[in-house]
Amino acid sequence: SDMNLSALIFKMANSSFYSRGRQIDSFKHAIAILGFNVIKTIAIAAASEVLFLSDSNPVYRRLIWSHSLVTGILSRVLGKEFPKQEKDFDAEKFFLSGLFHDIGKVVLNYFDRKNYHLVIAEVEENPIDFPESEKKHVDTTHVEAGILACDAWGLPTYVKDVIADHESPFQEGEPANLSYVRAANFLSKHLGYGKEVEEEKEQFFQTMAHISGNHAYLDNGEEELNSLCTLVNAKLSKDPLFQYFHAGESA
Q: Which of 35, 60, 185, 226 is deepest in the core (most CB within 10 A)?
């Protein structure tokens, strides 16, 4: 509702992330502090919560809503911490790319909830990834469903590209937001917001070596991963969007 959105805008503006100790007590001041792009991101996140939380299944909420929100936030965090080129970093673009990278799972769950709950349970309890389980139970994948949703809803091309390729291996010359979302996607799962797939770890190391310029990810990946988790956990805990939406409990 408009009241909830207004409350979120005030909460964001008065967070330590934006207010720097000042009390923001007018809507005009809040908008001036946050800026148009942040307001737009808040509105999209608030609207998306309704879409993502159309199912009360707690495993669904952790594997999909919490994972998607945290992936969006971490895409933005990684972009700020490891900017390959300043011109390539767009906080809103990175956040939205991460938030919607798994939107196909929401679509499949909406249209075939009974069978998609079988997917969710199988992924949660067994060493199987979403695409493999989806093909078994719903005869398609969340990537295919996400691409169709992008076309139907008119989502930006940069979001569609991430949906299509975020599970593919890193390739030189790929769009910047795709690289950061792939890394954030793995990190989110590794931190407990989603189901980690061991095979994705090598892709993560390759992607992080590229975006950070630190080739220790290729030689000593586990140690670098532990250090990065400490960094992003601290950033995540202070993020106003994360604080507001209570993104879920770590596994």
A: 185
